[in-house]
């Protein structure tokens, strides 16, 4: 089991198995509360979320935005209170952020994390382990105070009954076909040592295949790229952050280079790319290669999983999908050289294409 409930913007609630058949009850000894929002800088402390906790130790779970890119988590239970403050440097504007609190009473783990939804950075911090929390408190959405200050726009809130990872996120639907020297293979079925055909280099071996199931909401919402656009032989479904390599005469004329990388979210136009409806949960996968490379997925050129120098930071690495990968298999990667387009640049490309 994993995700058990979610509340989307506008108040649309989703309950996942087994809670579509059974009422939520009991204490959660492990789990994750995940909040996604876009947030402009705040001048003073602003509460974003407050969850009343009702059990043998009543209290609340609160997340606050603070000035200078800081965020605070407070968990009050009876006479005890634990808290942690983190700072994540943010770009100008109102970036989309994911703020999560994860705990595991058996493992003695409690973690607060703040990450940019575009995958450009995350920070984590540990705190004292709270007592187990009542499951019905965490899924009683009408009782929650989704305190959206003027600076914030809430996207969704989701509850999982396991410790969810943060950091690098796979971006291809698990059943997407990728090109290998021996024909097309589903990305989720690749194994360590399998070769993948890359655009600018010899075939590279797969070091690991990262997989994750997430709610189909917000920055996780799946996007369908339609054939024959982008060189596709068949439609594929990708995550909004997944970058597609686009080349051709129009790119050369507009940007003065052979090709550019475009996040899938910037390609959505209702024709060649559109959001995929009715997918409450999405299974994503992606291949980790020795380098940050471009490879073919059903005919379109797309990026492999990027982890940079994550292996140099054991604490951050332990919070990611790669925590159980043998350290010797983790590469140090440089970014791909093609420029990554901003949203307005992608729109300009679409206008002249």
Write structural notes for this entry.
With 353 residues, this protein is mostly beta strands. It is built from four helices and 27 strands. It has helices spanning 135-138, 249-255, 314-317, 343-352, and strands at residues 3-8, 13-15, 27-28, 30-39, 46-53, 59-66, 70-77, 80-87, 96-104, 109-116, 122-126, 133-134, 152-160, 172-173, 177-180, 183-186, 195-196, 204-205, 208-215, 223-225, 236-238, 243-247, 259-263, 273-275, 281-288, 294-297, 300-303. Strands 2-1-13-4-9-10-11 form a seven-stranded antiparallel β-sheet, with no helix packed on it. It has a four-stranded antiparallel β-sheet with strand order 5-6-7-8, with no helix packed on it. Strands 23-22-27-26 form a four-stranded antiparallel β-sheet. Strand 6 and strand 7 (70-77) form a beta hairpin. The longest helix has 10 residues, at 343-352. The termini are far apart. The model has no long low-confidence stretch (mean pLDDT 89).
CA-CA gap between termini = 45 Å
Helix content: under 10%
Helix-and-strand structural type: mainly beta
The tally of helices reads: 4
Outline: globular
What is the rounded Rg? Answer: 21 Å
Total beta-strand segments: 27
What does the largest sheet look like? 7 strands, antiparallel
- If strands are numbered along the chain, what order do they take across the biggest sheet? 2-1-13-4-9-10-11
**Looking at the chains present, what oligomeric state does this protein adopt?**
single chain
Mean pLDDT: 89
State which percent range the strand residues make up. Answer: 35-45%
Give the low-pLDDT segments.
none
